[in-house]
Amino acid sequence: MAIYAVGDLQGCLTPLERLLEQVHFDPARDRLWLVGDLVNRGPDSGACLRRVRDLGAAAVTVLGNHDLHLLAAAAGVRSPRPRDTLAQVLDRPDAAELLDWLAACPLVHHDEALGWTLVHAGIPPAWDLDRARTEAAAVNAVLQEPVRREAFLAQMYGDHPDAWEDTLEGPDRLRYTVNALTRMRFLRPNGRLDFSDSGPPAQAAKGLTPWFAVPERAMAGHPIVFGHWSAFGFQRGPDWLALDSGCVWGQSMTLVRLDAAAPDEITSWQQPCG
Q: Tens of pLDDT along 185-226?
């Protein structure tokens, strides 16, 4: 058995299929991890959801910010943006089934035997694995109850609170969790989330630090695989892998094998897009 991870699909199905063909992926034997953002901006959002859904237990995906945006649009609490391609999902005859499946996907996945943790954007430096799983599970519990889901999705958007406190409650606590796990890239010197910059770390404004480079990060040494950061691209660190290589922007999609080596020795495959 091999365990693979792939970067953001964002509605780009053809490059995913080509990557799976390259590695002779067999759902009866292998497993595929997806970093989230299965949908939006690309040409095949509905087909991407169906393909991953049909892999059953052979695939695990975490929710990304575009996936949550789809759920909000489907609930009628948020209008699609001009560049969105969410109608590719919403207009399908099986839309309700796909949306229920998507809402049941976790925000954090951890494999005890493998040692890797899967998340869309990152894990706040102050959080250890137990905290990340606990807060993610609280969001997932809300998303799996239709009435509570709609109420939360209506309150999900916004950049505040931008700092974690154990005393956060209700929508504020859930919103911080969603923002940290699905939108985070940089932190300010005071540890607050910063959403003003989405470029590569080398070009970041003074004082901003990538979440994975914050000193004394609670999960340092525990490997994390994430996406969300197309301007950063496919990058490897001592205990992290960034897999969003900008396929939907005409660049490439990246697939790696997680179970065969240390993070800095990972085997990878890339498929041009566009």
A: 999 999 999 999 999 999 999 999 999 999 989 999 999 999
In this prediction the pTM is 0.96
Q: In the chain, where are the structural domains located?
A: 3-272
Q: Which amino acid is at 110?
A: H
Place of tokens 């940089």: 186
Pick the CATH number of 3-272 from 3.40.50.300, 3.90.550.10, 2.40.50.1020, 3.60.21.10: 3.60.21.10
